[in-house]
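To whoever is on call:

I kicked off a structure prediction for a single chain this morning and the downstream step that reads the tokens threw a length-mismatch warning. I double-checked the sequence; it's 125 residues and nothing unusual in it as far as I can see. Pasting both halves so you can look.
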Amino acid sequence: GFPMRISTPIRAVLATSLALLFTMSVLAHTTLKDAVPADGTLVKVAPAHIDLLFNGPVRLIKLELMGVGHEMPTSFEASAEAMASFRLETPGMHPGAFTVNWAVIGADGHTVTNSYSFTVDPNAP
């Protein structure tokens, strides 16, 4: 009797810890490997499109290109099939600071959301 009462809580803690570690490692698997324009960059010319490259096939379910106080138009449509790279047209881009908010569903079924920013400045050196 006595050893069981000690080992059961310990087993529960171990199982919870392992589950948490597993979940964290799974979520870490879907990442944005590259973007054009890249995060934190200053570009002179407003891009005609945004390229997103993930580390594996994902379904892009959200993409917002946010200017200061307004959303910019893009060719985004939620993807039915999983792909590793996406090209989104960005008509009407202009100078300013922009944030790209994205969400994907990875192969493991988990949704991952993140964002990055870039600036368009024709006067950049």
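Update from on-call: the warning came from a stale cache, not from the record. Cleared it. Sanity check on the structure: Residues 26 and 98 are 29 Å apart (CA to CA).
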